[in-house]
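Quick question, first post here. What does this chain look like in 3D?
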Amino acid sequence: MAKWQIQRGESPVLGPYTDEQVVEGIHAAAIPNDSKIRAVGDTAWNSVTDVPEFAAAARAVGLRATRGGNHSPSPAAATSGASKAAAPALAEAIAASGTRVTKAHVVGIKLEKIGSTLEAISVLVAVGGVVLCLLQWLNQIDLHQDWGPKSTLGLLWVTAVACLGWIVMGIGGLISAKIVGALGTGLATLGDILVATKQDGRSEDAR
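> Answer (accepted):
Ran it through. Tokens below.
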């Protein structure tokens, strides 16, 4: 599903494009790292490098640049002047570069999203569990106002242990989410580096 709009410098707004098309455009140098991007329907623009879906591709292009890879943008992409001509120009630049998104990148981005979702769920589980424990403790105190200090402290101890259990569960979930997210980032970066390496090889062959 096409959901991204691109703006390069003062050029007209391009798009909408899918995640895969944007990644291909980054590798084709049709979308430089200083381009602005936003989701369709949003008003705020962000840097391409600040969007998690495309950060790995941008890093790979930067790595290729530091290694001296030849990666000049297509003239069609650089000279597009009108919004109707700009979208085909991006497609032409991508096609001319021969760039394709690897399966590793696609899987990596999905894992990153899963990791982010798991992080949010883990926090909710931990906070929700602690709140439930405290509410249960307050409810028991209200029902058993005749309890002595020893019984009250015992209930408090049980509540504290239960809260600690929820917190540990949440921390475990966060750690798992971080691992999944890191694995996703690694796969996405690996896929982009493979694409960058192939493009460098084609550039050397062309020389």
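The chain has two domains: 4-97, 103-206.
The radius of gyration is 25 Å.
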